[in-house]
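User: I'm putting together notes for a lab meeting next week and I want to include a structural view of one of the chains we've been expressing. I don't have a solved structure, so I'd like a prediction I can at least talk through. The sequence is below, exactly as it appears in our construct file.
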Amino acid sequence: MFGGFSGTKLKVQLKMAVSRIQIASNKKSALLKQNMRDVAVMLSEEPPKEEMASIKAEALIRDDNLIEAYEIIQLGCELLHERIKLLEFSKKCPEDLVTVISTVIWASHRVDIPELLLVRKQFRAKYGKKFEEDALSNKNNCLNERVVAKLAVQPPAAYLVQCYLERICEQFEVDWQPKVKLSASQMVEPMVAPNGYSVPAGKGTGLGPQEPLPEQTPTEPVPSKPNGKIPPALKIYEPSPTPPPVVSAKPVMPPVAPSNPPGSNPAKSDDFDEVDIYIPPAPGAPTAPQNSKTDDDDDNNDDAPSAAGGASTGQSSSAASYEDLAARFNNLKTI
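Assistant: Thanks for the context. Below is the predicted structure for the 335-residue chain, given as C-alpha coordinates.
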Protein backbone atom coordinates (compact mmCIF):
# COMPACT_ATOMS: atom_id res chain seq x y z
CA MET A 1 0.00 0.00 0.00
CA PHE A 2 1.28 3.47 -0.91
CA GLY A 3 2.57 5.35 2.15
CA GLY A 4 2.47 2.24 4.38
CA PHE A 5 5.16 0.57 6.44
CA SER A 6 8.47 -0.17 4.70
CA GLY A 7 11.23 -2.03 6.50
CA THR A 8 13.85 -0.73 4.06
CA LYS A 9 12.89 2.88 4.64
CA LEU A 10 12.75 2.37 8.39
CA LYS A 11 16.23 0.85 8.41
CA VAL A 12 17.67 3.75 6.40
CA GLN A 13 16.00 6.38 8.60
CA LEU A 14 17.22 4.70 11.79
CA LYS A 15 20.80 4.68 10.50
CA MET A 16 20.59 8.32 9.49
CA ALA A 17 19.11 9.21 12.89
CA VAL A 18 22.08 7.60 14.63
CA SER A 19 24.53 9.69 12.59
CA ARG A 20 22.52 12.86 13.17
CA ILE A 21 22.37 12.27 16.93
CA GLN A 22 26.14 11.73 17.05
CA ILE A 23 26.80 15.01 15.25
CA ALA A 24 24.41 16.96 17.47
CA SER A 25 25.93 15.45 20.61
CA ASN A 26 29.48 16.36 19.60
CA LYS A 27 28.40 19.91 18.78
CA LYS A 28 26.74 20.36 22.15
CA SER A 29 29.79 18.97 23.95
CA ALA A 30 32.06 21.50 22.25
CA LEU A 31 29.75 24.38 23.19
CA LEU A 32 29.60 23.18 26.79
CA LYS A 33 33.34 23.65 27.26
CA GLN A 34 33.18 27.21 25.97
CA ASN A 35 30.16 28.06 28.14
CA MET A 36 31.87 26.67 31.23
CA ARG A 37 34.85 28.89 30.57
CA ASP A 38 32.54 31.91 30.27
CA VAL A 39 30.95 31.10 33.62
CA ALA A 40 34.38 30.87 35.25
CA VAL A 41 35.28 34.31 33.88
CA MET A 42 32.06 35.80 35.31
CA LEU A 43 32.80 34.42 38.76
CA SER A 44 36.41 35.60 38.69
CA GLU A 45 35.46 39.25 38.18
CA GLU A 46 35.26 41.75 41.01
CA PRO A 47 32.47 41.84 42.05
CA PRO A 48 31.46 38.40 40.71
CA LYS A 49 28.43 38.23 38.45
CA GLU A 50 26.66 35.48 40.37
CA GLU A 51 23.19 35.93 38.93
CA MET A 52 24.37 35.89 35.33
CA ALA A 53 26.57 32.90 36.06
CA SER A 54 23.59 31.07 37.61
CA ILE A 55 21.53 31.61 34.47
CA LYS A 56 24.40 30.31 32.35
CA ALA A 57 24.76 27.32 34.65
CA GLU A 58 21.08 26.49 34.23
CA ALA A 59 21.61 26.45 30.45
CA LEU A 60 24.61 24.18 30.98
CA ILE A 61 22.48 21.75 32.96
CA ARG A 62 19.86 21.68 30.22
CA ASP A 63 22.48 21.02 27.52
CA ASP A 64 24.07 18.33 29.67
CA ASN A 65 20.71 16.61 30.08
CA LEU A 66 20.08 16.84 26.34
CA ILE A 67 23.38 15.13 25.55
CA GLU A 68 22.51 12.36 27.99
CA ALA A 69 19.09 11.89 26.35
CA TYR A 70 20.71 11.82 22.92
CA GLU A 71 22.93 8.94 23.93
CA ILE A 72 19.98 6.91 25.27
CA ILE A 73 17.92 7.53 22.12
CA GLN A 74 20.93 6.61 19.99
CA LEU A 75 21.16 3.26 21.76
CA GLY A 76 17.47 2.60 21.07
CA CYS A 77 17.87 3.42 17.36
CA GLU A 78 20.85 1.09 17.13
CA LEU A 79 18.81 -1.70 18.68
CA LEU A 80 15.85 -1.18 16.33
CA HIS A 81 18.21 -1.08 13.35
CA GLU A 82 19.58 -4.49 14.27
CA ARG A 83 16.11 -5.99 14.83
CA ILE A 84 14.48 -4.66 11.71
CA LYS A 85 13.69 -8.16 10.44
CA LEU A 86 11.78 -8.94 13.63
CA LEU A 87 9.73 -5.75 13.20
CA GLU A 88 8.91 -6.60 9.58
CA PHE A 89 7.50 -10.08 10.27
CA SER A 90 5.70 -9.42 13.58
CA LYS A 91 2.14 -8.05 13.48
CA LYS A 92 2.25 -6.78 17.05
CA CYS A 93 5.01 -4.88 18.76
CA PRO A 94 7.37 -7.19 20.66
CA GLU A 95 7.10 -6.81 24.42
CA ASP A 96 10.79 -6.08 24.93
CA LEU A 97 10.69 -3.29 22.30
CA VAL A 98 7.58 -1.45 23.49
CA THR A 99 9.56 0.92 25.75
CA VAL A 100 12.20 1.62 23.11
CA ILE A 101 9.70 2.33 20.31
CA SER A 102 7.44 4.41 22.57
CA THR A 103 10.41 6.50 23.78
CA VAL A 104 11.53 7.18 20.20
CA ILE A 105 8.00 8.26 19.26
CA TRP A 106 7.67 10.50 22.34
CA ALA A 107 11.10 12.16 21.85
CA SER A 108 10.68 12.74 18.10
CA HIS A 109 9.12 16.20 18.55
CA ARG A 110 11.27 17.18 21.58
CA VAL A 111 14.71 16.92 19.98
CA ASP A 112 16.05 18.53 16.84
CA ILE A 113 16.47 15.28 14.87
CA PRO A 114 14.28 15.33 11.71
CA GLU A 115 14.92 11.64 10.96
CA LEU A 116 13.04 10.64 14.13
CA LEU A 117 9.84 12.17 12.71
CA LEU A 118 10.10 9.84 9.69
CA VAL A 119 10.71 6.89 12.02
CA ARG A 120 7.61 7.87 13.96
CA LYS A 121 5.51 7.80 10.76
CA GLN A 122 6.74 4.30 9.96
CA PHE A 123 5.75 2.99 13.40
CA ARG A 124 2.36 4.67 13.14
CA ALA A 125 1.80 2.93 9.81
CA LYS A 126 2.91 -0.39 11.34
CA TYR A 127 1.08 -0.38 14.73
CA GLY A 128 -1.70 2.18 14.26
CA LYS A 129 -2.63 5.56 15.73
CA LYS A 130 -3.69 4.12 19.11
CA PHE A 131 -0.17 2.85 19.76
CA GLU A 132 1.17 6.31 18.91
CA GLU A 133 -1.27 8.06 21.26
CA ASP A 134 -0.40 5.71 24.12
CA ALA A 135 3.28 6.48 23.62
CA LEU A 136 2.72 10.24 23.58
CA SER A 137 0.60 10.15 26.74
CA ASN A 138 2.95 7.70 28.53
CA LYS A 139 0.18 5.24 29.16
CA ASN A 140 1.06 2.51 31.64
CA ASN A 141 4.48 4.18 32.13
CA CYS A 142 5.73 2.78 28.84
CA LEU A 143 8.42 5.43 28.39
CA ASN A 144 12.01 5.46 29.59
CA GLU A 145 11.90 7.46 32.82
CA ARG A 146 15.43 8.74 32.45
CA VAL A 147 14.76 10.20 28.99
CA VAL A 148 11.54 11.78 30.23
CA ALA A 149 13.39 13.41 33.14
CA LYS A 150 16.24 14.69 30.98
CA LEU A 151 13.92 16.18 28.35
CA ALA A 152 11.53 17.74 30.88
CA VAL A 153 10.75 21.44 30.59
CA GLN A 154 10.89 22.09 34.34
CA PRO A 155 13.92 24.16 35.46
CA PRO A 156 16.59 22.44 37.57
CA ALA A 157 16.74 22.78 41.34
CA ALA A 158 18.71 25.66 42.87
CA TYR A 159 20.96 23.22 44.73
CA LEU A 160 21.99 21.60 41.41
CA VAL A 161 22.77 25.00 39.90
CA GLN A 162 24.98 25.91 42.85
CA CYS A 163 26.76 22.57 42.63
CA TYR A 164 27.53 23.25 38.96
CA LEU A 165 28.96 26.66 39.84
CA GLU A 166 31.19 25.23 42.56
CA ARG A 167 32.42 22.47 40.26
CA ILE A 168 33.26 24.96 37.50
CA CYS A 169 35.22 27.12 39.95
CA GLU A 170 37.11 24.08 41.14
CA GLN A 171 37.92 23.02 37.57
CA PHE A 172 39.18 26.47 36.49
CA GLU A 173 40.78 27.30 39.87
CA VAL A 174 38.56 30.30 40.67
CA ASP A 175 38.31 31.47 44.28
CA TRP A 176 34.58 32.09 44.69
CA GLN A 177 32.07 31.67 47.50
CA PRO A 178 28.32 32.36 47.11
CA LYS A 179 27.12 35.52 48.82
CA VAL A 180 23.56 34.24 49.30
CA LYS A 181 23.27 30.97 51.20
CA LEU A 182 20.44 28.62 50.24
CA SER A 183 18.07 27.36 52.87
CA ALA A 184 16.79 23.78 53.01
CA SER A 185 13.49 24.70 51.35
CA GLN A 186 15.21 26.67 48.57
CA MET A 187 17.53 23.83 47.60
CA VAL A 188 14.76 21.65 46.18
CA GLU A 189 12.97 24.54 44.51
CA PRO A 190 13.96 26.07 41.16
CA MET A 191 16.33 29.00 41.19
CA VAL A 192 14.64 32.25 42.19
CA ALA A 193 14.39 35.07 39.68
CA PRO A 194 17.36 37.49 39.82
CA ASN A 195 16.83 40.73 41.76
CA GLY A 196 20.09 42.41 40.75
CA TYR A 197 22.09 42.12 43.97
CA SER A 198 25.23 41.21 42.02
CA VAL A 199 24.99 44.21 39.68
CA PRO A 200 27.28 47.03 40.90
CA ALA A 201 26.38 50.70 40.87
CA GLY A 202 26.83 52.58 37.67
CA LYS A 203 30.32 53.88 37.06
CA GLY A 204 28.95 57.16 35.74
CA THR A 205 27.78 58.20 39.23
CA GLY A 206 31.22 57.67 40.75
CA LEU A 207 29.75 55.57 43.59
CA GLY A 208 30.56 52.19 42.13
CA PRO A 209 33.92 50.45 42.31
CA GLN A 210 36.51 52.34 40.33
CA GLU A 211 39.17 50.56 38.37
CA PRO A 212 42.68 51.45 39.58
CA LEU A 213 44.79 53.40 37.13
CA PRO A 214 47.78 51.56 35.72
CA GLU A 215 51.09 52.43 37.31
CA GLN A 216 53.21 54.64 35.11
CA THR A 217 56.85 53.64 35.05
CA PRO A 218 59.37 56.43 34.37
CA THR A 219 60.71 56.27 30.89
CA GLU A 220 64.48 55.96 30.56
CA PRO A 221 66.24 58.50 28.34
CA VAL A 222 67.23 57.18 25.00
CA PRO A 223 71.05 57.09 24.72
CA SER A 224 72.49 59.23 21.96
CA LYS A 225 74.75 56.40 20.85
CA PRO A 226 73.62 52.79 21.31
CA ASN A 227 75.96 50.43 23.05
CA GLY A 228 77.43 47.58 21.11
CA LYS A 229 75.13 46.28 18.43
CA ILE A 230 74.15 48.75 15.76
CA PRO A 231 72.02 47.73 12.78
CA PRO A 232 73.93 48.08 9.54
CA ALA A 233 71.23 50.38 8.10
CA LEU A 234 71.49 52.76 11.09
CA LYS A 235 75.24 52.63 11.68
CA ILE A 236 76.69 55.97 12.72
CA TYR A 237 79.42 57.40 10.47
CA GLU A 238 82.80 57.68 12.16
CA PRO A 239 85.84 59.24 10.45
CA SER A 240 88.57 56.80 9.51
CA PRO A 241 92.00 57.23 11.21
CA THR A 242 93.87 57.32 7.88
CA PRO A 243 93.95 60.71 6.10
CA PRO A 244 92.29 60.97 2.71
CA PRO A 245 94.54 60.82 -0.39
CA VAL A 246 95.95 64.15 -1.69
CA VAL A 247 94.65 65.10 -5.11
CA SER A 248 96.86 67.43 -7.18
CA ALA A 249 95.01 70.37 -8.68
CA LYS A 250 95.43 71.13 -12.38
CA PRO A 251 96.02 74.74 -13.48
CA VAL A 252 93.04 76.46 -14.92
CA MET A 253 93.61 78.33 -18.16
CA PRO A 254 92.36 81.94 -18.23
CA PRO A 255 89.43 82.65 -20.47
CA VAL A 256 90.24 83.77 -23.98
CA ALA A 257 89.24 87.36 -24.70
CA PRO A 258 87.13 88.12 -27.75
CA SER A 259 88.96 88.63 -31.01
CA ASN A 260 87.72 92.23 -31.43
CA PRO A 261 87.64 93.81 -27.98
CA PRO A 262 86.19 97.25 -27.59
CA GLY A 263 88.69 99.96 -28.60
CA SER A 264 90.66 97.71 -31.01
CA ASN A 265 91.18 98.43 -34.70
CA PRO A 266 88.73 96.37 -36.82
CA ALA A 267 91.06 96.70 -39.78
CA LYS A 268 93.40 94.07 -38.24
CA SER A 269 90.76 91.32 -38.04
CA ASP A 270 92.04 89.67 -41.20
CA ASP A 271 95.63 89.43 -39.92
CA PHE A 272 96.26 85.82 -38.79
CA ASP A 273 99.97 86.26 -38.10
CA GLU A 274 99.44 87.64 -34.62
CA VAL A 275 96.77 86.87 -32.07
CA ASP A 276 95.20 89.99 -30.74
CA ILE A 277 94.89 89.80 -26.93
CA TYR A 278 92.95 92.53 -25.28
CA ILE A 279 94.63 93.78 -22.14
CA PRO A 280 92.76 96.42 -20.21
CA PRO A 281 94.78 99.49 -19.26
CA ALA A 282 96.39 99.49 -15.86
CA PRO A 283 95.18 102.02 -13.35
CA GLY A 284 97.38 105.12 -13.50
CA ALA A 285 99.01 104.14 -16.78
CA PRO A 286 99.09 106.77 -19.56
CA THR A 287 96.54 106.25 -22.23
CA ALA A 288 97.85 106.13 -25.79
CA PRO A 289 96.31 108.68 -28.14
CA GLN A 290 93.94 107.24 -30.61
CA ASN A 291 94.15 108.13 -34.24
CA SER A 292 90.93 109.68 -35.35
CA LYS A 293 91.63 109.11 -38.97
CA THR A 294 90.25 106.08 -40.73
CA ASP A 295 91.60 104.06 -43.59
CA ASP A 296 89.39 105.87 -46.00
CA ASP A 297 90.89 109.19 -44.88
CA ASP A 298 94.39 107.78 -45.39
CA ASP A 299 93.50 106.66 -48.88
CA ASN A 300 91.98 110.01 -49.75
CA ASN A 301 94.90 112.01 -48.33
CA ASP A 302 96.85 113.39 -51.31
CA ASP A 303 99.77 114.62 -49.14
CA ALA A 304 100.84 111.06 -48.02
CA PRO A 305 104.53 110.58 -47.06
CA SER A 306 106.91 108.67 -49.30
CA ALA A 307 107.26 104.92 -49.22
CA ALA A 308 110.61 104.94 -47.39
CA GLY A 309 109.46 107.42 -44.82
CA GLY A 310 106.22 105.47 -44.28
CA ALA A 311 108.14 102.21 -43.68
CA SER A 312 110.38 103.73 -41.03
CA THR A 313 107.46 105.31 -39.31
CA GLY A 314 105.57 101.96 -39.22
CA GLN A 315 108.56 100.16 -37.66
CA SER A 316 108.91 102.72 -34.89
CA SER A 317 105.22 102.67 -34.10
CA SER A 318 105.16 98.82 -33.88
CA ALA A 319 108.10 98.86 -31.45
CA ALA A 320 106.40 101.47 -29.30
CA SER A 321 103.15 99.51 -29.24
CA TYR A 322 104.98 96.28 -28.20
CA GLU A 323 106.70 98.07 -25.31
CA ASP A 324 103.38 99.55 -24.27
CA LEU A 325 101.76 96.07 -24.23
CA ALA A 326 104.67 94.62 -22.20
CA ALA A 327 104.35 97.38 -19.66
CA ARG A 328 100.63 96.78 -19.30
CA PHE A 329 101.14 93.04 -18.89
CA ASN A 330 103.68 93.63 -16.08
CA ASN A 331 101.24 95.97 -14.36
CA LEU A 332 98.55 93.27 -14.49
CA LYS A 333 100.90 90.76 -12.83
CA THR A 334 101.55 93.08 -9.92
CA ILE A 335 97.84 93.66 -9.23
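A couple of points you could mention at the meeting. The two ends are 136 Å apart (CA to CA). The longest helix spans residues 7-44.

User: Perfect, that's what I needed.
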